[in-house]
Write a structure and sequence with these properties.
With 195 residues, the chain is mainly α. The chain is 61% helix and 5% strand. The two termini are 26 Å apart.
């Protein structure tokens, strides 16, 4: 049984690697979803559940991780040479930190979600956008302000570096929105996925 468990985990690891490569064209939402069709289904499901627009989810993921499922902050250097601690505990597509991720899990009752899966990261971003709407009264379509709270947390204090980042996310979300409109009917058709 123990040997079988090892083989299963090994197989699961390779499935995750195969499904989690960075898309070739990250500046075009249609190209991303053409390559990663299930991502569209997951993002659309999050939009229906939490009201977070697909384009905002994707723009946040692009900014936070560059679509790298194992993205982590760089390590600080001890004596400018020795790799030391990471700047934060953020990980995965959404770059959610441990404390916020645990709050999300408790709030939604989801015990087995992980920050390195696109589906779970998408749902986390949707939940966060919805919480920002409830707590801070920010429209879910206000890409700029939504990202400010995503970066800074639910506080009135805004770190200066977050402003250009929020502008970038807003521009990307608007560009993705226009692109998605052009391929929406194609994306909404059901596809048969063969593994």
């Amino acid at each position: 049984m123990n040997q079988l468990k090892k083989y299963f985990l090994f197989f699961l690891f390779f499935i995750l690697i195969g499904c989690s490569s960075v898309p070739k064209n990250t500046v075009n939402a249609c190209a991303i979803f053409d390559e990663k069709y299930l991502w569209y289904k997951f993002a659309k499901s999050t939009e229906k559940k939490w009201g977070a627009p697909v384009e905002l989810q994707m723009a946040i993921i692009k900014k936070e991780s560059g679509y790298d499922w194992l993205a982590r902050p760089e390590r600080t250097k001890l004596f400018k040479v020795i790799p030391w601690k990471r700047k934060s505990s953020s990980l995965g597509y959404s770059q959610a930190v441990v404390d916020t991720w645990e709050t999300y899990k408790r709030s939604t009752g989801k015990k087995y979600v992980t920050r390195v899966l696109f589906k779970d990261s998408s749902d986390f971003i949707g939940w966060y956008v919805n919480q920002t709407y409830k707590k801070m009264k920010v429209s879910k379509k206000n890409y700029f302000r939504q990202y400010l709270y995503y970066y800074n947390g639910w506080t009135k204090r805004t770190r200066p570096e977050s402003i250009p980042y929020a502008k970038e996310v807003s521009r990307t979300a608007k560009k993705y929105r226009a692109q998605i409109r052009k391929c929406q009917s194609k994306l909404n058709r059901n596809k048969y996925i063969i593994f």
